[in-house]
Amino acid sequence: MKKCKKTVDFIKDLYKKDFVALHEPVFIGNEKKYVNDCIDSTFVSSVGKYVDKVEEFISNYVGSNFAIAVVNGTSALHIALFVLGVDNDSEVITQSVSFVATANAISYTGAKPIFIDIDKDSLGISPKSLKKFLESNCYIEDNKCINKQTNKIIKACVPMHTFGNPCRIDEIKEICDKWNIYLVEDAAESLGSKYKDKFTGTFGKVGVYSFNGNKIVTAGGGGVVVTDDEKIAKRIKHLTTTAKKPHKWEYFHNEIGFNYRMPNINAALLLAQLEKLDDFIKIKRELHNKYKNFFNKLNIEMVDEIENARSNYWLNAILVENKEEWLECLNNNKIMARPLWNLLNELPMYKNCQTDELKNSYEMYNKVINIPSGVVF
Ligand SMILES: Cc1ncc(COP(=O)(O)O)c(C=O)c1O
């Protein structure tokens, strides 16, 4: 494990630390000012100006007509699917290479996930595999995509931009459009990433970002849904705020809503972080280049942005043959490293879900290791 030892030294030298975490938040802007302002005003909870400011910032930044702030990325995905009418008569295509929240959000609606293989370079849904699956397993009736095996409607497809690296989202969109399937982008990890000069999260009917503590910018916990569709935006806002009809004092809720609104104090922290987003992306892209030069010399491949993509490089990843040995070596030497998530189709609650052969997913599961990627000065 000579290469691993060299890697340990390189990373410790980069971060000038004895223990290097996978990803730590960095607070160097207006975080304390905005959070204190929130506390002083007493508006720390479900009402306040920072929620509006975050929504305005994100819709301006990514160029979507609307942005709705919610409690986390999981609830953002759930509400996105819910408003598109995904229910227990539906199925939703996604990738087995993702954090469990992607499949969980699908399940909250009552729908079943179907897992399709990824491309090895982007780690996102493979357009070729998606097309092949639909052509061999589905047909269109009354403008709906019907799965021959289950007779259920495939209502949505949720590709994910893994570690911030954009997948081939334009090709995926074209296939979804052809099959009358809603495209919902899980851009939880990829705020600020672009594909063909357009921000990830803005290709589909609805897109979703996460602001968990480990993301490129954080709200402590939070999520945002973006869409260009006014009707959908209004419905998401209504449903995520307990479906209460505005009134001077009455508590009239016209349907079963959700308490998914982002608290103002989280929005205050997030606004300060968002002000630093472009600086963080610049630093992370420089960090990726440093890693790339280093691993090139060791003949170790990295996960890289594909052609036409501009990644935020939220997390860097290397491809190795002896994954367990690398994980032992790095972690034993106080360099936090983690494998790819266990494939979702291998988890007990999803093991009976329909899949294609997932060849690339298994191959990448056996090779990918995430290495420290926090903002470094
Ligand atoms: C791909 C992906 N989807 C969804 C989520 C869920 O976001 P949250 O943790 O904010 O609920 C995360 C991250 O946590 C994620 O990485």
From TrEMBL:
Q: Enumerate the catalysed reactions.
A: GDP-alpha-D-perosamine + 2-oxoglutarate = GDP-4-dehydro-alpha-D-rhamnose + L-glutamate
Q: Which GO terms describe its biological process?
A: polysaccharide biosynthetic process
The enzyme's E.C. designation: 2.6.1.102
Q: Name one GO molecular function term.
A: GDP-4-dehydro-6-deoxy-D-mannose-4-aminotransferase activity
Q: Which residues form a coiled coil?
A: none
Q: Which cofactor does it need?
A: pyridoxal 5'-phosphate
PANTHER family in UniProt: BLR5990 PROTEIN, TRANSAMINASE
Q: Which NCBIfam families match?
A: NHT_00031 (TIGR04181)
- Name of the featured protein: GDP-perosamine synthase
Organism of this sequence: Caminibacter mediatlanticus TB-2
